[in-house]
Amino acid sequence: MAHVTWDHDPPTTWIATVSGQAVCSVKRKDIGGWTAGWTDERLWPPPSHLPKAQPQPTRFFSSLEEAKVAVEQALAA
Could you give the CA distance from residue 31 to residue 57 in angstroms, rounded to a whole number? Predict the structure, then answer.
């Protein structure tokens, strides 16, 4: 399991790092919510309500905590 460290770049960005390497950035959106984007070749699976959608490098979350948990779970898999 990867140990994730979160660095904060105020006021709108959080960076997930593993072993000192940035792997994902979580950014606050002006319209509300947060997006999590991988910095490498990883892709988010399609949402359950759109099973035929293509995997994407960025995913939308309604809260910062939801985004952080999703990133940590993805890195633990």
Answer: 20
Both tokens of residue 57? 């490098």
Reply yes or no on whether the pLDDT at 1 is more than 70.
Answer: no
Backbone angles phi, psi at 6, to 5 degrees: -110, 125
Q: Which residue type is seen at 53?
A: A
Residue among 76, 5, 66, 10 nearest 34 (CA): 66
Domain that holds residue 29: 4-76
pLDDT tens digits, one per residue of 25-42? 999 999 999 999 999 999
- How many domains would you assign to the chain? 1
DSSP helix/strand/coil, 5: strand
The bridge status of strand 21-28 relative to strand 34-38 is antiparallel
- CA 72/CA 52 separation, integer angstroms: 25
